[in-house]
Specification:
About 45% of the residues lie in helices and about 5% in strands. The chain is mainly alpha-helical and about 140 residues long. It has one domain. The protein has a two-stranded parallel sheet. The protein is globular and about 40 Å long.
Length: about 140
């Protein structure tokens, strides 16, 4: 099931110019008109992330790591921020369990880089354990 309407990518720039609930180059709307009713249901429960399990099995993603960003967002990153691309992208990460939509863009990048710098199997397990309640209660889901 698609979570967004046809033409959603084309409408992104127009919507981004009109309003944006995030700071920095990341674009996000709490009430995004491009999201379908079924898509809102899937996104709230994070079920839209399930297809990424295939990417994990193919070795293209990790369970834990910085979230992948669209190219149009990455083009606006500064050099130091691009270091987050030095590891495989993940389905969950330190910033997602540390506040998700409540964190600023700079806090998000700092948490991604902290998790890269402090990487350990124990930290990955801690992040995975913290992800479960965050998903169940829908904290920061938009």
């Amino acid at each position: 099931m698609r979570t967004r309407v046809d033409g959603a990518d084309e409408a992104r720039e127009t919507l981004a110019r009109q309003r944006n609930d995030r700071d920095g180059p990341v674009f996000k709307l709490a009430s995004d008109p491009r999201v379908t009713r079924g898509g809102a249901f899937l996104r709230k429960r994070r079920l839209d992330e399930l297809p990424q399990l295939v990417d994990i099995l193919r070795g293209e993603m990790s369970l834990v790591g910085p979230r992948p960003e669209p190219r149009c967002v990455l083009e606006k990153f500064e050099d130091g921020q691009l270091r987050r691309l030095s590891v495989k992208p993940g389905v969950t990460g330190l910033w997602q369990v540390s506040g998700r939509c409540e964190t600023s863009f700079l806090e998000r990048i700092a948490l991604d880089l902290e998790s890269i710098d402090r990487w350990s199997l124990a930290l990955d397990f801690k992040i995975l354990a913290m992800t479960i309640p965050a998903v169940l209660v829908g904290r920061g889901a938009y």
